[in-house]
UniProtKB/TrEMBL annotation:
Domain of life: Bacteria
Residue ranges crossing the lipid bilayer per the database entry: 21-45
Species of origin: Absicoccus porci
Pfam families: ComGF
Protein name: Prepilin-type N-terminal cleavage/methylation domain-containing protein
Keywords: Membrane, Transmembrane, Transmembrane helix
Length: 138
């Protein structure tokens, strides 16, 4: 009789199959959520860089449409409202001088070129070069 009573009080030395499957499911769910979170942060960062470039290009186009623009040694020179300033690459940024107004940052290079059709800006960002048209000759 004593043996039957001891069988009712079995010792728990491990996990049951349901507990193991439940913990595996929870860890899988947490890892999937972490992956989605990391992926969304990455997409937010890359879209921020793209938006920054697009805004800077639009601002440059607007300035060149309202002013006289020409290129000298890879630098854009703008004459607007009896004021002359330059936009060029300096320390991984595209800046307006004088005044050091930052137009773009986190770039590896930027040069302006005067071509047959107009003024173009070539941006080097992490080994990827992209060329944008800033102004078109009329």
């Amino acid at each position: 009789m004593q043996k039957a009573g001891s069988m009712m009080k079995s010792k728990r030395n491990g996990f049951t199959l349901i507990e193991a499957l439940l913990s595996l499911y929870v860890s899988l769910l947490v890892s999937m959520l972490a992956f989605v979170l990391i992926l969304s942060v990455y997409h937010m960062y890359t879209s921020r860089q793209t938006i920054q470039i697009e805004v800077a290009i639009l601002q440059l186009r607007q300035r060149c449409a309202l002013a006289t623009c020409h290129v000298q040694e890879g630098i854009l020179i703008i004459d607007m409202n009896h004021e002359t300033y330059q936009i060029g690459y300096d320390k991984h940024r595209l800046v307006k001088q004088p005044g050091y107004e930052i137009w773009m940052e986190n770039i590896d290079g930027a040069t302006f070129q005067k071509q047959e059709k107009g003024i173009y800006l070539t941006i080097d960002q992490q080994g990827n070069k992209q060329t944008y048209q800033i102004y078109e000759w009329v």
